[in-house]
């Protein structure tokens, strides 16, 4: 421990001697080097720019409306009085003679028709009136006078009637202007007697007649076995068998068809007069 103070004294003496030997300008450099560094000043904050206010739009001055001109009322023209028409004497108006009128119901093949009908009034072979009649409805038909249609009715002439182109049983006497009730029945039929077996006949039934309607023309009804028609287009036979619908292919009978009628006993076959 006694050596430590001696060592420190030696070091301090060496330092003093070294300082005495240093030139003055070197001492200044040392002094300058040991000068405390000046603090760098903090940068000044950039001020936030003030927003430039948006200029207010100068309102466009409104145009002063032009005053509406007050219309000058037009002068109302005084109406010119119409001349009073002269009264001209004329003769009587020419009118055609009045028709005859018939009205009533139709019973066809013993029953009320189940399909639409056309009723025609005929004088000397010329159709002088007609009406389409719905199924089950009555008819009312004007029959034209000869003054309305040449060749038609004069008082006292006979008027015959056709239903669906076939003659009815009834006739009437033409009387202009006089309505008359009339019940029509038909068609007017022609008949032929058939023996047991099959016979071919030429049909006079209108086109599209149902086999059930044709069957109503055969008496007694129980004698009918079948109707047959050869279908040339199909090259096959079509049959109607009463009461056996699933085995029947015949759906209609037309005028001039070659109709085969097969019966089990003697029977009367009826069809419309042409």
Structure characterization notes:
With 274 residues, the protein is mainly beta. It has helices spanning 3-21, 24-33, 211-215; strands spanning 100-104, 106-108, 117-123, 126-133, 139-143, 158-163, 166-173, 179-181, 184-186, 189-194, 197-202, 218-219, 224-231, 236-240, 258-263, 267-272. The strands form 5 sheets. Strands 4-3-6-7 form a 4-stranded antiparallel β-sheet, with no helix packed on it. Strand 13 (224-231) and strand 14 (236-240) form a beta hairpin. The longest helix is centred in the N-terminal third of the chain and has 19 residues, at 3-21. The chain is elongated, with a radius of gyration of 65 Å. The N and C termini lie far apart (173 Å). Residues 26-37 have low confidence and may be disordered.
Tags for this entry?
mainly beta, four-stranded antiparallel beta sheet, Immunoglobulin-like, 12% helix, 274 residues, 32% strand
CATH superfamily (homologous) name of the domain at 100-186: Carboxypeptidase-like, regulatory domain
How far the N terminus sits from the C terminus, by CA atoms, comes to 173 Å
Q: Which percent band covers the strand fraction? A: 25-35%
The averaged pLDDT comes out at 81
Q: How does the helix and strand content classify structurally?
A: mainly beta
The helix content is 10-25%
The number of strands is 16
**Count of helix runs:** 3
CATH class of the domain at 100-186: Mainly Beta
Query: Which residues sit in consecutive blocks of at least 5 with pLDDT less than 50?
Result: 26-37
The topology string of helices and strands comes to: HHEEEEEEEEEEEHEEEEE
Largest sheet: 4 strands, antiparallel
Oligomer: single chain
CATH topology name of the domain at 100-186? Immunoglobulin-like
CATH architecture of the domain at 100-186: Sandwich
Radius of gyration: 65 Å
């Amino acid at each position: 421990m006694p050596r430590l103070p001696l060592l420190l004294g030696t070091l301090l003496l060496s330092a003093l001697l070294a300082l005495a030997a240093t030139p003055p300008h070197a001492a200044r450099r040392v002094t300058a080097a040991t000068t405390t560094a000046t603090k760098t000043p903090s940068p000044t904050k950039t001020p936030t720019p003030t927003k430039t206010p948006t200029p207010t739009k100068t309102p466009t001055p409104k145009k002063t409306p032009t005053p509406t001109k007050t219309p000058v009322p037009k002068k109302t023209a005084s109406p010119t009085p119409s001349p009073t028409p002269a009264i001209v004497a004329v003769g009587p108006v020419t009118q055609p003679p009045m028709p005859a009128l018939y009205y009533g119901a139709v019973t066809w093949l013993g029953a009320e028709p189940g399909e639409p009908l056309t009723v025609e009034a005929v004088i000397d072979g010329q159709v002088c009136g007609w009406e389409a009649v719905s199924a089950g409805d009555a008819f009312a038909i004007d029959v034209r006078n000869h003054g309305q249609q040449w060749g038609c009715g004069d008082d006292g002439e006979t008027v015959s009637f056709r239903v669906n182109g076939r003659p009815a049983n009834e006739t009437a006497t033409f009387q202009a202007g006089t309505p008359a009730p009339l019940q029509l029945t038909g068609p007017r039929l022609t008949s032929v007697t058939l023996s047991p077996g099959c016979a071919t006949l030429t049909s006079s039934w209108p086109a599209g007649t149902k086999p059930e309607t044709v069957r109503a023309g055969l008496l007694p009804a129980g004698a009918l076995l079948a109707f047959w028609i050869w279908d040339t287009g199909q090259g096959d036979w079509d049959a109607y068998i009463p009461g056996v619908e699933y085995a029947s292919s015949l759906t209609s009978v037309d005028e001039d068809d070659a109709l085969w009628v097969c019966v089990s006993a003697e029977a009367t076959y009826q069809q419309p007069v042409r």
